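Comment on both lines for my students:
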Amino acid sequence: MIELKKNGFTLIELLAVIVIVGLLVVLVSSKVKPAVNDSSEAVNLASANNLVNALEEYYFQAKLNGGFTGCNYNFSNNSNSCSGFSFSGSKPTGGVLSLSADGVISGNIIFDEQYEFTVSNNKVIE
């Protein structure tokens, strides 16, 4: 009698593995997407807080150097009346922050046209 060697997998076995892998991908991706969105929001919130802190530091330096009358930073059209103010980090894609003569920061900040934060009395509000 002739013996047949079985080399490889049958089509049914391969299809079963593909279906199982596909189900695993669907299940994992549905769990990962919210985590990615949450981390993006947390990063943008941290950037907003860093921006407010940088403006506070700018205010104190400007007060030490003489009279300060206030300024605005418009991120939508990149106009900045805060002479000499710069910061590093994620730059907002929209919004306006106002720094008053007495150091109060207010306005709104938009990141990636998706995450918007309000700033009131030097605090970032989600």
